[in-house]
User: What shape does this take?
Amino acid sequence: MIRVLLTIILPLLLPTLLYLLWVLTMRRDNLSAGAQPLRDLPLVWLAVAGVALVSLVLVVASVRFGGGSSGVYVPPTTVNGQIVPGHVVPAPRQ
Assistant: This one.
């Protein structure tokens, strides 16, 4: 759950949050009682920036943290009534 939050949800929302923070700090003195700063949001550009940021995070995460295939995956099995979890067995040397 924390991985999904850090790699997908946060990068999607980060451009919008930063934009809202910027708008609110720049217009703090200029806001009148009836002004609506949220009505003028550039939603398309914020969505494009969010998708670009998510794509970048996913590419970096897969390149940086993706494991190599230096073995053979053995799926979970049952042996004598006990569940043996899935694991990677080192590849045989040639």
